[in-house]
Amino acid sequence: MANEPSFLFSGIRFNRKKFGADIARFQKKDIDTDSAKISSVAEGESAKTREAVEEKTASTKKRKRKGNTSENVEGFNVFRNSASVARSIGDVQADEESIELKKKKNKKEQNQQLERDAIFRKQHNIHVSGYNVPSPLQSFDELKSRYKCPSYLLRNLKELGFKEPTPIQRQAIPVLLDGRECFACAPTGSGKTLAFVCPMLMKLKDPEKGGIRAVILCHTRELSAQIFRECKKLAKRKKFGIKLMTKNLLRNADFSKFPCDILISTPLRLRLAIKKKKIDLSRVEYLVLDESDKLFEPELFKQIDSVLKACSNPSIIRSLFSATLPDFVEDRARELMHDAVRVIVGRKNMASETIKQKLVFTGSEEGKLLAIRQSFAESLNPPVLVFLQSKERAKELYGELAFDNIRVDVIHSDLSQQERENAVDNFRAGKTWVLIATDVVARGMDFKGVNCVINYDFPDSASAYVHRIGRSGRAGRSGEAITFYTEEDIPFLRNVANLMAASGCEVPSWLMDLQKKKWKKHRPKRDSISTKPDL
Ligand SMILES: Nc1ncnc2c1ncn2[C@@H]1O[C@H](COP(=O)(O)OP(=O)(O)OP(=O)(O)O)[C@@H](O)[C@H]1O
């Protein structure tokens, strides 16, 4: 504005040589009056108006004196000040009106966006609570347009065959990318791993050498190893330091000396490293507690607590993920997190709707063995996972089925790390048809294409049921779950029946008429599994 000629003088012809001294004088005045104008604007509306009216009158008089002109005069602009002020009043009013208009427009657009988000969330069964929750993702491409997602990651997603984000990914990814803390609950097999790994890689941007920047905690070594592999796949083509906390690493590594952007560990191993002062977590920007409800159970809470304390970076983003989110975990999350967003897909603590669930009465322990043999003889549709309540019972059932001409294996916590890894790998590779297991692989494990889960022993809680049967029917595939029950389990049947009905399975009406019993940990003493007569 300062150097622009006033529109009032367009066309003035002026002898610059002759009036050089005047030009200099007026130029100074021009600067002075300009600064006067600035201060007058700063002084409030009434003073501004008064001054402007006075100057406007003066300017009109002067204009009349000068008459009309035909040439542009740079730098000679005696009336510019008054004109500018006159315009500035108009401008201020116009600005105010346009700000007001813009505000209204923005508000309208915001409301329309909120409406669109609400409709989209409803379509995908996403429920959110929290302040100012970011819009869900329409597609993976939006990661680029909205968040400048690096192309290596988009390429990796494509190569992994992920065409569309799953509902939890649609909502949790933008929440985390917006730097918000998050606790989330979504069905088993619905892609929660990608929902926290993808924004983590985007936030970390590039590999660095200054210490650990992200930590993922998982309750078992098997799940840690699985998430380690998933991270590697998603980070392909980018040289992030991704480490799995193995026994060896814990014993021998000097964490200050090797680059580690992301560390994946069980709480026990990480706590040991913290206690031995082998590890510095004060730079951690991103902390994930996977299977968070399990991690917050009393036996693990002490370990989690020391990790939370060691991650002392004030700008850390923490997130909790699970398929089951009991109220006590939500309470903890609210205490722990700042301005967190809660994301629930479907209904909380529900079994996946892609699993056909069935209850089978076996009467007694012997009845179970007969039932499983009969089921395998009629139609064995591998891979099949069979859950038992203890490692002793898992070993016993393995002892029974090992000679039945089916490819069977067993996994429990008494096996060495290598044996456990082999059991998982062989099952994944299809070498094992039936894997007998304890709850050690009930949560988080992604065995692709498990056709059937058999609860040989009735699960000891609602969440155990949801997670166990969730090893089947993953990523939109269908699956089957069969739960054996004996007389002893009848008091707890109604709880499973409720879960079945809630996920759309047909439940005999007599089951719904059973008395509802509060589901405490249900682990009855059971007879040993054997076809050999007691001696
Ligand atoms: N967008 C996607 N499209 C298709 N498949 C996907 C997508 N995201 C993840 N998956 C696949 O879905 C499967 C289940 O994912 P994941 O193991 O993360 O589930 P989860 O929700 O963590 O389950 P759980 O509660 O049992 O731990 C995996 O095989 C994964 O590769």
From TrEMBL:
Protein's GO biological process: maturation of SSU-rRNA
Quote the Pfam families the UniProt record gives: DEAD, Helicase_C
Q: List the GO cellular component terms.
A: cytosol
Q: What is its EC number?
A: 3.6.4.13
Q: Tell me the ranges covered by the Helicase C-terminal domain, including all copies.
A: 354-515
Q: Which residue intervals define the domain DEAD-box RNA helicase Q in the entry? A: 142-170
* Top-level taxonomic group: Eukaryota
Q: Where is this region: Disordered?
A: 34-73
Catalytic reactions of this protein: ATP + H2O = ADP + phosphate + H(+)
Q: Where is the Helicase ATP-binding domain?
A: 132-422, 173-343
Q: Which UniProt keywords apply?
A: ATP-binding, Helicase, Hydrolase, Nucleotide-binding, RNA-binding
A single GO molecular-function term is: ATP binding
Which Gene3D superfamilies does the UniProt entry name for this protein? P-loop containing nucleotide triphosphate hydrolases
Q: What class of enzyme is it?
A: hydrolase
List, as start-end ranges, the regions of compositional bias called Basic and acidic residues: 45-58
The record places the motif (Q motif) at 142-170
PANTHER family per UniProt: ATP-DEPENDENT RNA HELICASE RHLE-RELATED (PTHR47959), RNA HELICASE (PTHR47959:SF15)
Q: What family is this?
A: Belongs to the DEAD box helicase family. DDX52/ROK1 subfamily.
Q: What is this protein called?
A: RNA helicase
